[in-house]
Amino acid sequence: MAMLEIDRLTVEFGREEAPFRAVDGVSLSVDRGEVVGIVGESGSGKSVTSLALMGLIDYPGRVRAERLRFDGQDLLAASDRQRRRIVGKDIAMIFQDPMTSLNPCYTVGFQIMEALAVHAGGSRAERRTRTLELLEQVGIPDPASRIDAYPHQLSGGMSQRVMIAMAIACNPSLLIADEPTTALDVTIQAQIMDLLRELQTRNRMGLMLITHDLAVVAESCQRIVVMYAGQVVETGAVEAVFAAPRHPYTAALLASLPEHGSYKSRLASLPGVVPGQYDRPRGCLLNPRCPHATERCRAEAPQLRSDDRGGVRCHTPLAADGRPTP
Amino acid sequence: MLSFVLRRVGLLVPTFIGVTLIAFALIHLIPGDPIELLAGERGIDPARHAQLMREMGFDQPLWQQYLNYIGAALQGDLGRSIKTREPVLTEFFTLFPATIELSLCAMLFAVVIGLPVGILAAIRRGSVFDHTVMGVSLAGYSMPIFWWALLLILVFSVNLGWTPVSGRIAVAYFVEPVTGFMLIDTLLAGDTDAFASALHHLVLPSIVLGTIPLAVVARMTRSSMMEVIREDYIRVARAKGLSQTRVILVHALRNALIPVVTVIGLQIGTLLAGAILTETIFAWPGVGKWLVDSISRRDYPAVQGGILLVAAVVMLVNLLVDMLYGLINPRIRHAR
């Protein structure tokens, strides 16, 4: 049994009669020490999935699932208080924009020690020592002088390191990183990713890496989950999916990488955008953008079918040669 | 920080000149003069009138009078009241504690109720509670003070008999003025009955005077809070597994307070302006009532001095509020 099991998670917003499904029956799992990449373009429900897992979806959002288990504990049945004992301790999360993720009114030390105080306890002096240790671990030079700094005195890369220190403060067994490098400079991005990988290996954390950077997935992840319009469209081992994508959307994502089209003057792209609340098509959600769409795709929604290679949600999954199978 | 304070204090000089000019011009624009009003309905012999005017220096051209006034004011002499012959400064500072006491209680009322109500409305935005609070506060903000005061007196003093109609303390008590604050003086005298009476007399005027600040504080807290709880760092705080109460009171409130503190500072002006009406209605012996009486007596030195001093207090409080910012907002503290 995997450490984290999500089965048919649905998150809806808006009116009860005509809801908007931001997340539509998503199932995924993360094992201890495993790195799972969740990719998809903006609006595909990646972040909402992780927020739902953390219990951070507010009214009027509605979260439903067949199963939401972490480490044998049922998160759906847990009370707010029970959930708070897990969230921030065993499951921690780092967010996209480190510059707005730290509270401007408190020192970074206070914000890290607060997480320790809630979950780990200990005396004030112990918490301070541990915080210095954490700042050291995430590669902040001269932690003793930075511990009393305010967020506005730190750079973006520094802030993200503080966020990471805060997240790993209580030795979580699962770390969710929601586009942890999107808001940072390219050089800093690499440093932050290296740091995350290093911490993941050292602490044997499960890492759920949400990103739209496929290169990062290829480098860091063991498994990949591709999402489109709130649904999982393909899952599988990273090498297998990158070598032979079975879903036309995954294929299009990979084809859009500059590395793939280096000899062409234009990058390949999939025309159109992710459907929103009012323009969700009938049948397969990708059919208006899919180059292989058939009558059946326009009429009937495909189910996620799993085999030993992973899962794919397509009527005519692509074969190894890139052609759709009838 | 020091240069900031000096700069702010330097800015006070032109403001003061403006205030004296306006106060001086306005009071002289009102028809009638102090001698005429002192004489009352019997009237006064024109020759005697002219003599008195000359004695008091009111026969000189206005610009001359203004320069004389400024000259004296710069030396700390605001003149003597025409009616009582007492120095304006002494009169003002004898009465001022009563106004401060009333204003502080009104502000306390506004903040103690306004803050939690605003926070709750922000957390439960769109709820019945939120709509009620916003509706009631708009009504409170729009209500003329004198009408609201009369309404409350009618209901609570006249019909229900819960509170006294006017005054600062029941006539049965005499308390030696030490600080000028009735609540403190009665406690210093050890007279708990007198303290209760003073408190009793404070209730309605404080509510009346505090209504507009209450509405402003509640609305400002709500909107500021609503903005803050959408911030990323609030989500991060929740992701740490903190309780809802801690997230709101520790992480959101501190940030949300920054604009609220400004507004509270700006309300001091409203408060002192409101005190003029409130004190008049409740016969509260403070500077507000004294100013109104002085205006109707054309007591030029008292009016000019009173306005100048009230303006000084407002400016001083705003300066204090600006400095208080640094305490709440580290970004400002470190910028200097």
Automatic annotation (TrEMBL), chain A:
Subcellular localization(s) per the UniProt record: Cell inner membrane
What is the recorded name of this protein? Answer: ABC-type dipeptide transporter
Q: Where is the composition biased (Basic and acidic residues)?
A: 301-311
Q: Keyword Nucleotide-binding on this protein?
A: yes
Q: Where does the record place the region Disordered?
A: 301-326
Please give the SUPFAM superfamilies that the UniProt record associates with this protein. P-loop containing nucleoside triphosphate hydrolases
| PANTHER family with a match to the protein in the record | DIPEPTIDE TRANSPORT ATP-BINDING PROTEIN DPPD (PTHR43297:SF2), OLIGOPEPTIDE TRANSPORT ATP-BINDING PROTEIN APPD (PTHR43297)
Spell out the family assignment given in the record's similarity comment: Belongs to the ABC transporter superfamily.
| Topology with respect to the bilayer | Peripheral membrane protein
Could you tell me which PROSITE patterns the record lists for this protein?
ABC_TRANSPORTER_1, ABC_TRANSPORTER_2
Its top-level enzyme class, in one word, is translocase
Molecular function (Gene Ontology), one example? ATP hydrolysis activity
Record GO cellular component, one term: plasma membrane
Q: Which reaction does it catalyse?
A: a dipeptide(out) + ATP + H2O = a dipeptide(in) + ADP + phosphate + H(+)
Automatic annotation (TrEMBL), chain B:
GO CC annotations on file: plasma membrane
Reply yes or no: does the keyword Lipid biosynthesis apply. no
User: What range(s) does the ABC transmembrane type-1 domain occupy?
Assistant: 96-325
Q: Which Pfam families match?
A: BPD_transp_1 (PF00528), BPD_transp_1_N (PF19300)
Give the transmembrane region(s). 9-30, 100-123, 135-158, 198-218, 256-282, 302-328
Q: Which domain of life is it from?
A: Bacteria
**Which Gene3D superfamilies has this protein been placed in?**
MetI-like
Q: Which PROSITE patterns does this entry report, sorted A to Z?
A: ABC_TM1
Keywords recorded for this protein, A-Z = Cell membrane, Membrane, Transmembrane, Transmembrane helix, Transport
Q: Give the Gene Ontology MF terms in alphabetical order.
A: dipeptide transmembrane transporter activity
Its membrane topology, per UniProt?
Multi-pass membrane protein
In terms of InterPro entries, this protein maps to: BPD_transp_1_N, MetI-like, MetI-like_sf
Major localisation:
membrane
Where does it localize? Cell membrane
**Which family does the UniProt entry place this protein in?**
Belongs to the binding-protein-dependent transport system permease family. OppBC subfamily.
- Protein name per Swiss-Prot or TrEMBL: Dipeptide transport system permease protein
Record organism: Plasticicumulans lactativorans
